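Continued from yesterday's entry.
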Amino acid sequence: MMNFALAPEVSVTDTEHGTVLLDERTGRYWLLNGTGALALRALLDGTSPQGVVASLCQRFPDAGTAQVEQDVDNLLHALRTAKVAAS
């Protein structure tokens, strides 16, 4: 798998409650909660989706592996569908 990256026109801003992504091409933005922000940062740092799942499961042991896998898959799918992911 190639490293995950955001499109060059997407800016990232951390907030008190998570992360905001702004697609400067369209003006659309997305707010990621704290957990989504952790997942995004790990992906951008080169961690595989499976590595992100493992890390989140360790940090949040009550979440359940299947749920965390689904959440990470949903995040990746949403970013790719919105065309804010470069990979």
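--- second protein ---
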Amino acid sequence: MHTELIEIRTGGTERVVDLTRRIEEFLGGLGDGLVNVWVPHATAGVAVIETGAGSDTDLLEALRSLLPADDRWSHRHGSPGHGRDHVLPAIIAPSMSVPVLDGRMALGTWQSVCLVDTNVDNAVRTVRLSFLAG
């Protein structure tokens, strides 16, 4: 197994961060297998989504609608509505595995692997990439 921890600076705003290029760099022609992407945080997840055409903005809008940043949440430390961030990983999982063929992820034409982070209280995230040879 080949593994690496990368750091992503999300700043103080809700973000969808495309990780595809970083993952491809990590794979660097390793061959066939699976890449696992793991976010070791209680308030972030990873998703496969199209980016650059507004879908990333649409995802954040949908999450705001589904998980409003208001005072309804029992979990109340941090910024107002922060409890919703702790519900996020139940909706957008903190990990995924993607098939790798000839050292490249077998993604569809418009698919990107993205970090989804609604937690404005944590500006730095780590992501563990692990390659399992087939």
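The chain has a mean pLDDT of 94. The two ends are 10 Å apart (CA to CA). Will compare against the first tomorrow.
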